[in-house]
Amino acid sequence: MRSKPRPSVTEIAAAAGVSAMSVSNALRGNNHVSAATRAKILRVAKRLGYQPDPLLTHLMHHVRSRRIRHTQANLGVLLLNDDAYSKRLMAGVEERAGHLGYAMDKIAPEPFDGNPAGFTRMLQARGIEGLLLPTARTPRSLAAMLDWSQFSTVAMTYSVTEPRFHRVVPHGFHNAFLVLQTLRARGYRRPTFAINRGVELRANYAYAGAVAAEAQLAGQPALPPFVSDAASPHGLAGVGAWFRKHQPDALILTGARHVKNELLPELGAATIARLGLAVLDYDPAYPIAGIDQKTDLLGATAVDLLVAQLHRQERGLPIDPVVSMVEGRWVEAEK
User: Fold this and answer.
1) CATH number of 9-52
2) How does pLDDT run across 198-239, given as a tens digit for each residue?
3) CATH no. of 73-170+296-326
4) How many alpha carbons lie under 13 Å from residue 296 in its C-beta half-sphere?
5) pTM attached to this predicted model
């Protein structure tokens, strides 16, 4: 029995009462049509028996890929932070973008504060079609920064609170749970975190959840983490009073630099020497074990996701944002 012929774009357009261009955009997932119109077109297409042709889809992906490379379309990175983590993330981004044949522009948005139209025109003049958003220094909305409908965008953080983009982020819960389990396996009975609230938000509140879940699994009471509201994006002001009240035997910090900058002034060297210490962002320059967040893979994955959007001609904000997570690994301190 012969299968029913696939309906054409023109037939779907006639049945839906829209233009053929609207149907084409809707079937490609392009946000040049409204969400309501797209949903209507997809319902009509399904009723008529439309199914995408996988061979044609693969061919068009190849054609668009060659066309994009030929025109040297650029990817843009908005410089929202200059900390060590962001710099390592950028190394992965640049390596992957270069491998795929894309130029990479690093752009400081501050000169265009309050001028979204001007910022949008500047990006378009540079040939930028895709944008990557690394971590922000503090949680912030970028909704009014530019006309996001003109670009494909991927965020590499939760600290960009608005708009809601596709994201590629570290698997905060997995990483935190792994540190807690490793410390408990080494004999520590009261491990917990000392972090800044901004850091907890960047992990989508995964750290507090990991403390509760790991303690329940271990059959032990959960020791509440210290979460500072200090103005500094990494500050731990007040950790001394919390420490004397709760008496943890192991502390997990964001990075090793906090031992000298934050813990030492509040706890003193003798107390720190008795503590188990681990970090969520391992740095081989410091003798403290912790999590390698695989920033090279995070950056590469973000580029892959962005390039896939470009190939599919997807612009604007996604209707259903997708979060991709990269699991870190435990790394012992270098002697």
Assistant:
1) 1.10.260.40
2) 888 888 889 989 999 999 999 998 899 998 886 565 578 888
3) 3.40.50.2300
4) 2
5) 0.78
